[in-house]
């Protein structure tokens, strides 16, 4: 317990926490992200309805408007979708999926990009040229196009039933493989600088292996810009998943993300059921805005040129 208390006090009194308290925008962004995280994690307990339980759905309640419009009901505060699902509940569960895809794909892209960047920058030669030329080729294609290609190939190769089961991991990998390049290029440039420093040369002289040198002496010194890129990339990954789902290629409609909900609402938008699209859209905008504001603040704090 004392260790936890001391750790909390060190974190509270750290320079990063002090900088956070000085920035109202960062405080608002952090509070917004905390609210989103709590909503996503507590969705099974705070959602008025389980949208994945067919027994809880009422088709007669389909497309009910929000409570402040004529025909709205208090048990459906933001209305219902075309299947009679409570929009608040389905948005909470959709938020979980969008956050999961965003965080998981960013973590995979960061791990892959950092590993390849370290290897390319430290090894040099043909391996460096091969990795960087592959990165250059991928940069000539938009990230969403790469994700669409990977997802489309998975649909073609895998049986339909198996694809439905693996749709979430496939979307995560598709987005990760579309976004690893920026990590690799950044880490490679920093590794080229770090590998010629005295402490790295000293570790090499005493016989330390390449992997240990990269892990102990190079990686810690390149993490700051990587963390900034990762923070900003979470919002991009969430938007990419929403775009894939809007195009009907993301997670299945049985486990809808925010992008899937926007697509479902768009199909009936001109019929007057605007809330099915607008409410998930506003939730998605708030999420990405909070991530981007926090990422901008983190970039400014960790940039030594601004200190």
TrEMBL record:
Where does the UniProt entry say this protein principally localizes? membrane
UniProt xrefs under InterPro entries: BP-dependent_transpt_permease, MetI-like, MetI-like_sf, OppC_N
| Identification of the protein by name | ABC transporter permease
Q: Output the PANTHER family linked to this UniProt entry.
A: ABC TRANSPORTER PERMEASE PROTEIN, OLIGOPEPTIDE TRANSPORT SYSTEM PERMEASE PROTEIN APPC
Q: Where are the transmembrane segments?
A: 26-47, 97-118, 130-150, 162-181, 218-239, 274-298
**Where in the cell?**
Cell membrane
Membrane topology listed for this record: Multi-pass membrane protein
Record domain ABC transmembrane type-1: where? 95-295
- Keyword tags: Cell membrane, Membrane, Transmembrane, Transmembrane helix, Transport
**What protein family does this chain belong to?**
Belongs to the binding-protein-dependent transport system permease family.
